[in-house]
Write a structure and sequence with these properties.
Structural class: alpha+beta
Organism: Psylliodes chrysocephalus
Family: Belongs to the SMN family.
Strand content: 5-15%
Pfam family, one: SMN_Tudor
Low-confidence stretches: 84-88
Subcellular location: Nucleus speckle; Nucleus, Cajal body
Mean pLDDT: 71
GO molecular function: RNA binding
Length: 245
């Protein structure tokens, strides 16, 4: 992950350098924004991984931490739902009385799933076992629900919090993957752009005086023809010396 981070930062520097010469290039501007987001996500994932590696084993807390805002919020929502839940229609998460197959007795249970055929998946609160029953066999919970201790509430909330953070991490990793794929596409565009920009840099073309002439009247090796208004040097044909002439 560290190697990827360095690679992203290097690419960002290259893009920023290219923007200095072409600040209005929209492709480069978008690539810069995407690279910054990828770097931020990579740093976040790296920090989370380091925190998880350094975190000690879970110990049973003695009370609810005042600064744990997420846990307190989850507890408040759970208590609100418990106070305002209606029993006119069974819903997932409802507390009910379901028949336990081991002894045929009704016990407190939580509804996990309701299938179209009327079967219901439940988890018995007392035994912490899962079971299957039907809607017709469910009864409303009329007894007093066992009050959880502060440590049990905290542990339960921590489990919800763990699932919440897990889902959040999965969403972040999915976003990271999407940005990585998009960055690869932008990288190809950037390479094509850089290649095109290199081809545009043309210098003065020098031509050898011994190159083939441009016209049928041109001569090879003559490099000063027509300079300063002077025509090409003419040479007289040498004649034989005649004796006595």
């Amino acid at each position: 992950m560290s190697d990827d981070l360095q690679n992203y930062q290097l690419q960002l520097q290259q893009v920023e350098a290219a923007l200095l010469t072409d600040p209005d290039n929209q492709e480069l501007q978008k690539l810069k924004i995407d690279l910054k987001e990828v770097i931020e996500l990579t740093l976040d994932l790296k920090n989370k991984a380091e925190e998880a590696a350094n975190q000690p084993e879970y110990t049973e807390p003695v009370g609810v931490a005042e600064d744990d805002e997420i846990t307190k919020s989850l507890l408040a929502v759970e208590e609100f739902v418990a106070r305002n839940r209606t029993k006119k229609m069974w819903r997932i998460g409802d507390i009910c009385m379901a028949k336990w197959s081991e002894n045929g007795q009704y016990a407190e249970a939580r509804i996990d799933a309701i299938n179209p055929d009327g079967q219901v998946n439940v988890t018995f609160e007392t035994y912490k076992n899962r079971g299957i029953t039907t809607l017709d066999e469910l009864r409303e919970f009329t007894g007093q629900k066992r009050v959880l201790s502060e440590s049990e509430k905290m542990k339960k909330a921590k489990m919800h919090n763990k699932e919440y953070l897990k889902r959040k991490k999965q969403k972040k990793q999915q976003r990271f993957k999407e940005l990585e794929e998009e960055r690869e596409g932008e990288k190809k565009k950037w390479l094509a752009f850089a290649s095109k920009a290199t081809k545009k840099k043309t210098g003065l073309k020098t031509k050898s005086i011994f190159a083939s002439p441009d016209s049928v009247n041109g001569r090879v090796g003559i490099g000063t023809c027509g300079i300063s208004g002077k025509p090409m040097t003419e040479f007289a044909t040498a004649e034989k010396w005649r004796k006595g002439v």
